[in-house]
Amino acid sequence: MSSQASIEEFRTEIGGAVLGGLRARPPGPDRGLVIALHGGGYDARYWHHPGLDDASLLWLGASLGFEIVALDRPGYASSAAGWPNGQSLLAQAESIFAMVDAAASGDRPIFLIGHSMGGILALMMGADARGARLTGIDVSGVPLSYSAERQAAMRAALEPVIASGATHLPANPPAQRRAMFFGAGGSFEARAVARGDTEHPVPVAELPDALECPEILPPLLARIQAPVQWTIAEAENSSEGGPAVLAQAARLLERSRRVATSIQVASGHNISLHHVARAYHLRAFAFFEECLAA
């Protein structure tokens, strides 16, 4: 697989700032562009993590004939210099639409796959009038619903940071990240838990979007016309999960041309850092294939 695809660093200029990440290209003409949007505190390598090469979204997508661009969202890694304090997710949507305009002319199929904060961003883009050009959207780990206790705890932790004028959220201790974002022991790549060079402080600018997600998303979801696939991890522990939340998402996506939902077994919130990542990525590409056929 990897011998036939090329992976390289990706850089493009948007409004005088550099938006970067990783790009994988198939050996021949591509069948569409997939833009991968990581969650809060990670970077493009969430989709191409050391120790999980066989599950890499980039290798897999290129082997299936797609061009994959895994972005460092504004404020992260190679995209930090131009946006040192990050951006709100709505502002990030503008930056990424500008990139799409430069990279995909005509009727080239465009897909989004987003995790957690990146999933919120993908859905915001889908709800925009320009989202009509999207061929399909796949999201996982989107906090559509919090328990009252979890949302109160988040407000208590995040609102003072936002009010303080700090530019970035202090890093969570490893034990807290382990509890919130990973499933049962043995279900994930052990190196993915240890804080390494694929993890970064979360810009405060995007925190309100996560905190207010259950209020922000419903009216946006009602505007999305593109097909949407929505996955929740079996051991989701950063927001509410399970079939009831998937059913809520499906009801809210009333204008979408097609809605598919799934529980990802043997996984916590960070699905692409678990051993079932390949299964999840295969399902995402199967959904994209169905979007192309439709």
Question: What does this protein look like?
Answer:
This protein is an alpha/beta fold and 294 residues long. It has a single domain, classed as Alpha/Beta hydrolase fold, catalytic domain (Rossmann fold, 3-Layer(aba) Sandwich). The chain contains 9 helices and 8 strands. It has helices at residues 57-63, 89-103, 117-127, 148-164, 174-181, 207-211, 213-221, 243-252, 277-293, and strands at 6-14, 17-25, 33-37, 67-71, 110-115, 136-140, 228-233, 259-264. Strands 1-2-4-3-5-6-7-8 form an 8-stranded mixed β-sheet, sandwiched between helices. Strand 5 (110-115), helix 3 (117-127) and strand 6 (136-140) form a beta-alpha-beta unit. The longest helix is centred in the middle third of the chain and has 17 residues, at 148-164. The radius of gyration is 17 Å and the shape is globular. The mean pLDDT is 93.
